[in-house]
């Protein structure tokens, strides 16, 4: 970064892909798929508002909206000044292959596929280098060293700045990192989903790998503002998720009511308390809450300034002990390629 673009790091900034980024990133997925209809104009305004609030990390993937999400982010990037573009670390991902309109997927990690997927992402994002490129899901037919090696070749070719994996387990993480240094592991991590805490949370910190926490608001459940599942739009993916249905949903909503009460005691929205807890898990954790609207984005960005004392963390830990979420986090078709169950 040159002198004209250098800005002081935000309080609580986190290292990511060789840069220091604002503690809260922005997940862009919902702007194209999964959580009901979206509005490109509001999505673009949300991306702009994020930048104006100091957010420096955007997350997308080739599979979100079958290219729509990358193209949308690319459209936004194309309108930025060089200085603003340089402030952003934009991550994308490859590996999930779906038929348009279908959730069911297969996974491809072959080197030829990775090279072709990278070219397609570069094109849609309108850039000549990806800041952070993830393998989205693992294809066990290809050894992870070969996958990391193919991604490392893209780094050597100048097409990718840093690499990461999503939803891999500790052994794979060690093996991949030995084949090519990893900048990030991206996996589901929130008050609601704490399975990473035993091994992957300390391991990533020890290895100097950022832990990018996806769905840090439990896909909206932890906001305490999610409508009843029956009232979600017909195409909303959460209608198919075990945690949002039946007895499991009722139990989960009771837990979230208690979270809201704890947050209200501090004069905070539940979202900010949930995100602050995630940030508190380690200086290498970067939550990427998804938001399609500026109001949500602004509230989430404010969580970076929420300090928690030990008693508050203990109260949250007691309210959401590991494994306390009712129901599986994915439907059967969603487990393919996930190692860190
Ligand atoms: N690596 C992977 O396999 C993987 C999987 C899933 C997601 N991700 C990434 O992680 C990002 C975040 O995860 P996510 O979007 O699944 O879940 P999330 O961040 O836990 O929750 C997003 C939901 O919460 C709502 N929301 C956000 N802020 C809110 C607020 N302040 N008040 C009320 N509601 C609020 C959003 O609504 P609006 O959209 O209406 O604002 C959306 O419905 C994704 O965008 C994607 O980039 C990665």
Task: Describe the protein in words.
This protein has 341 residues and is an alpha/beta fold. It has eleven helices and twelve strands. It has one domain: TIM Barrel, CATH 3.20.20.100. Helix content is 37%, strand content 14%. The strands form three sheets. The chain has an eight-stranded parallel β-sheet. Strands 1-2 form a two-stranded antiparallel ribbon. Strands 6-7 form a two-stranded antiparallel ribbon. Helix 1 runs parallel beside helix 10 (294-301). The chain is globular and about 55 Å long. Mean pLDDT is 95; it is low at 1-5. The structure holds NADP nicotinamide-adenine-dinucleotide phosphate. The site of NADP nicotinamide-adenine-dinucleotide phosphate has 29 residues, from helix 10.
Give the number of helices: 11
Shape: globular
Question: Major sheet: order of its strands?
Answer: 3-4-5-8-9-10-11-12
- How many domain modules? 1
Helix content: 25-40%
Q: Which cofactors or ions or other ligands sit in this model? A: NADP nicotinamide-adenine-dinucleotide phosphate
State the fourth-level CATH superfamily.
NADP-dependent oxidoreductase domain
Q: Unreliable stretches, pLDDT < 50, 5 or more residues?
A: 1-5
């Amino acid at each position: 970064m040159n002198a004209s673009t250098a800005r002081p790091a935000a309080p609580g900034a986190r290292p990511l892909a060789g840069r220091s980024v604002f503690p809260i990133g922005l997940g862009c997925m919902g702007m194209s798929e999964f959580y009901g209809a979206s509005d490109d104009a509001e999505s673009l305004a949300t991306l702009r508002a994020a930048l104006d609030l100091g957010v420096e990390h955007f997350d997308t993937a080739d599979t979100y909206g079958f290219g729509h999400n990358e193209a949308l982010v690319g459209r936004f990037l194309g309108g930025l000044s060089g200085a603003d573009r340089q402030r952003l670390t934009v991550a994308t991902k490859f590996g999930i292959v779906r038929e348009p309109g279908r959730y069911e997927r297969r996974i491809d990690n072959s080197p030829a596929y990775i090279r072709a997927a990278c070219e397609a992402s570069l094109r849609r994002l309108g850039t000549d280098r990806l800041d952070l490129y993830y393998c989205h899901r693992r294809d066990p037919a290809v050894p992870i060293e070969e996958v990391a090696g193919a991604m490392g070749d893209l780094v050597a070719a100048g097409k990718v700045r840093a690499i990461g994996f999503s939803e891999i387990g500790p052994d794979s993480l060690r093996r991949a990192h030995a084949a090519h240094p990893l900048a990030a592991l991206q996996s589901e991590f929130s008050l609601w989903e704490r399975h990473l805490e035993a091994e992957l949370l300390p391991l990533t910190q020890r290895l100097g790998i950022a832990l990018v926490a996806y769905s840090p608001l439990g896909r909206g459940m932890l906001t305490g503002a999610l409508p009843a599942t029956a009232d979600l739009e017909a195409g909303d993916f959460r209608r198919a998720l075990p945690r949002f249905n039946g007895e499991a949903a009722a139990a989960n909503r009771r837990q979230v009511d208690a979270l809201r009460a704890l947050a209200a005691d501090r004069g905070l929205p539940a979202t900010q308390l949930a995100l602050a807890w995630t940030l508190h898990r380690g200086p290498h954790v970067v939550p990427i809450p998804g938001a399609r609207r500026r109001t949500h984005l602004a509230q989430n960005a404010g969580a970076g300034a929420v300090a928690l004392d030990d008693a508050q963390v203990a109260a949250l830990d007691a309210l959401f002990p590991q494994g306390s979420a009712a129901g599986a986090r994915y439907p059967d078709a969603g487990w393919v390629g996930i190692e860190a169950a």
